[in-house]
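INFO  loader      accepted 1 record
INFO  loader      residues=366
INFO  predictor   begin
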Amino acid sequence: MAKGFKGRISLDIRDSEPDWEPFLSPWAPKGSPNVLMIVWDDVGYGTMDCYGGPVRTPTMTRIANRGLRYSNFHTTALCSPTRASLLSVRNATSNGMATVAEFSAGFPGISTRIPVENGFISETLAERGYNTYCIGKWHLPPGWETSMAAYKGRWPLGCGFERFYGFLNGESSSWYPSLVHDNRRVGPPATPEEGYHIAKDLSDKAIEFIRDAKVVEPDKPFFMYLALDAAHAPHHVFTEWADRYKGVFDQGYEAIRPEILRRQKEIGLLPEDTELSPINPHGEPAATGPDGQPSPQLDSVRSWESLNDGERRLLARRARRPRPRRASAARRGRAGRYGRSRICAGARAEAVGGVGQVRDGEVLAR
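INFO  predictor   done
INFO  writer      dumping tokens
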């Protein structure tokens, strides 16, 4: 709310007294912290090693060891609804986000149009003297609002963020991403043959945004929403990173669950008497179609022992999710200015290996 004018206005300027306070840009209270919100897309609760999982995440472990690990966190199990709830601190259906943005329908709760009265954290903090940045995946506007001719009120810059670099849709190639810089389309700054990967690009841009403001006003706090594409389709990662997990998933998705549970109890995330839930079939395998057709096998998770050797090799390989194409031998040694990107993608590579680290409120280059 704007402050009232406390000066004096007279007929003669020499008898008037100005009051600039109502017209100044907002200033955050002294000592306001920098806020970095990192969103890992489709990463399960028991994936990272700091939560008992099989995936080595040294940077996230360092952060966890310096802070708190929550043991009761809920998501909507879908991209757009969870993101809308995180940023607005409201229930998904209150945001009109009962589904992903592309599947909107003309009904309350599922329109995928977040009401203007459901303000975002970014809007609140920008009005209180923060710089606000959005990096990575957005996935909040309806599909037809992602073109350059579209209404942009539901793009990051229309939702309280001053700067944006990332992609608007639910997924994008990690090698040739569909990038938006602020409100304009741009191409990636390098090619995969030059060592390009979107994770390194996003991390570099995050550091650049912060540095641009800090060189001018070093004490001004920032809020950054850093939503990386790691662990979400299309699961692109350099082969040498995927190969670090050879054999880790060969025992199957059912067999790794008891060990994860054991480690979670050791860490103190779960009570000692916690038991594993039954395997979720993820579908309705007993259901039939209108003419008695069996439920499609691909709609259900089959037990590991029901798979043949080829299917097991395929699924174990998919858990590592390597890059589908390598650079030519002539170019492989020339990494370009991006070096060899250290990124996790898909599930379960080393999720934070090359992403900027957090230390005392600052984002640092790897």
